[in-house]
């Protein structure tokens, strides 16, 4: 199997709940180590020119208290920024989003490397959590950390949209969905709930081929 697909195993995943403003919020937590200095990882995650190379183009008032927008994705406010170790932002979709925040922490690791910790805390509608569980955002974050890792090694996926239709990407996203299912189970979810969420996540990220409507 390709090295890219195997990188799904480089991430440690956890799932939890937390009370936020009286509501039950869901927490997904990812840990991954990179063979790059914290200053380089920090720059990759905060320099707009570099973010656009491995993630998405970003625009806005990119300073504490300012607002940002990722092209075709989330936007929000920059809540904390403490170079080169801590970044926290609100992570919002749509016109009336609920509570959702992402925090990135970097710490030095052995041999000049970096330990990355990413936490996404959000109040999630009950039916959405039932249908997808943590994989709804977890697979997306796995893909994001994959892209960051390739960038730090001096490479990128030239066309991410085209890549996601490849067998390599399908393997990665399937494994990612299953890994989030394991983290969901470890958090106390029932086997039935885990199975339903994994099925929903795989179907979302890897939709089955459209039915052939040509009766010919």
Automatic annotation (TrEMBL):
List residues of the Activator of Hsp90 ATPase homologue 1/2-like C-terminal domain. Answer: 35-143
The record ties this protein, via SUPFAM superfamilies, to: Bet v1-like (SSF55961)
Gene3D superfamilies attached here?
A: 3.30.530.20
Cite the Pfam families for this sequence: AHSA1
For this chain, the family text in UniProt reads: Belongs to the AHA1 family.
Q: What is this protein called?
A: SRPBCC family protein
Q: Which organism is it from?
A: Streptomyces yaizuensis
């Amino acid at each position: 199997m390709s090295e890219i697909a195997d990188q799904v195993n480089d991430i440690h995943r956890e799932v939890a709940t937390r009370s936020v403003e009286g509501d039950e919020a869901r927490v997904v937590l990812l840990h991954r180590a990179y063979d790059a200095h914290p200053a380089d990882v920090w720059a990759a995650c905060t320099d707009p020119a570099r973010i656009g190379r491995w993630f998405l183009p970003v625009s806005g008032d990119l300073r504490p208290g300012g607002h940002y927008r990722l092209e075709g994705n989330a936007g929000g406010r920059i809540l904390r920024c403490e170079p080169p170790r801590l970044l926290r932002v609100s992570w919002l979709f749509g016109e009336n989003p609920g509570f959702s925040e992402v925090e990135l922490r970097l710490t030095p690791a052995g041999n000049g490397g970096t330990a990355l910790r990413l936490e996404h805390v959000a109040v999630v509608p009950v039916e959405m959590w039932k249908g997808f569980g943590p994989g709804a955002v977890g697979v997306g974050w796995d893909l994001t950390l994959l892209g960051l890792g390739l960038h730090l090694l001096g490479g990128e996926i030239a066309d991410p949209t085209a890549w996601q239709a490849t067998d390599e990407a399908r393997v990665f996203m399937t494994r990612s969905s299953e890994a989030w299912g394991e983290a969901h189970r470890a958090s106390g979810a029932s086997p039935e709930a885990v199975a339903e969420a994994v099925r929903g996540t795989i179907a979302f990220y890897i939709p089955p081929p459209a039915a052939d409507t040509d009766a010919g």
